[in-house]
């Protein structure tokens, strides 16, 4: 039995009280969109998984670049499971002009993994002007599916069917 599910990722800068931003780059760096991040910042990250109650989709780890993060808290909402995490960008270097980095984001669930490669640009902590050019990114929403019937592979690499920047 195939189960459709969705995952939402929200990244919020608590010190500046704002969401991160993204910019449409028109694929001149490979991907259509670039997310903008600051070096040496603490980000509050929220991962929401719908539908709730699918035991195979309990979030165990979130990998953001080279950082593996364990959820601090999980809350059952009426229609989803919500996981809270904290990501520190200490040690990330500012991206050079006219260059973009690939930031691999991996959602590691009980019985599978969903990989989201995104194009990112890291700015120095002091640069707030370029960091906020573009559109506030309230969430990246992913649609996927998994085969959770008995006899199916116990660990799956889920594919993304649709990605939406909101």
Tell me what you see in this structure:
The protein is an all-beta fold. The chain has strands at 2-13, 18-19, 21-24, 33-38, 42-50, 59-64, 67-69, 73-76, 81-88, 101-109, 112-123, 135-136, 140-147, 156-158, 162-165. The strands form two sheets. Strands 3, 4, 6, 7, 10, 11, 12 and 14 form an eight-stranded mixed sheet that branches. Strands 1, 2, 5, 8, 9, 13 and 15 form a seven-stranded antiparallel sheet that branches. The protein is globular and about 50 Å long. 23% of the residues are buried.
Rg: 16 Å
Structural class computed from helices and strand pairing: mainly beta
Helix content: under 10%
Termini separation: 30 Å
Question: What are the salient characteristics of this protein?
Answer:
mainly beta; 166 residues; 8-stranded mixed sheet
Strand and helix map with partners:
Layout: E1 2-13, E2 18-19, E3 21-24, E4 33-38, E5 42-50, E6 59-64, E7 67-69, E8 73-76, E9 81-88, E10 101-109, E11 112-123, E12 135-136, E13 140-147, E14 156-158, E15 162-165
Parallel strand pairs: 4-11, 11-14
Antiparallel strand pairs: 1-2, 1-5, 1-13, 3-4, 3-12, 5-9, 6-7, 6-10, 8-9, 10-11, 13-15
């Amino acid at each position: 039995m195939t189960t459709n599910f969705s995952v939402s990722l929200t990244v919020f800068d608590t010190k500046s009280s704002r969401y991160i931003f993204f910019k449409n780059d028109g694929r001149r760096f490979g991907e259509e969109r670039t997310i903008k991040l600051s070096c040496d910042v603490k980000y509050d990250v929220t991962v929401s998984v719908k539908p709730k109650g699918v035991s195979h989709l309990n979030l165990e780890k979130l990998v953001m670049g080279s950082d593996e993060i364990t959820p601090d808290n999980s809350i059952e909402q009426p229609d989803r499971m919500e996981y809270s995490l904290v990501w520190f960008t200490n040690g990330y270097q500012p991206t050079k002009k006219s260059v973009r980095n690939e930031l691999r984001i991996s959602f590691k669930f009980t019985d599978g993994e969903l990989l989201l490669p995104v194009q990112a640009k890291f700015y120095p902590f002091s640069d707030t002007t370029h960091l906020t050019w573009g559109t506030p990114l309230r969430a990246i929403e992913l649609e996927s599916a998994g085969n959770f019937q008995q006899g199916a592979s116990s660990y799956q690499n889920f594919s993304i069917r649709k990605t939406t920047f909101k």
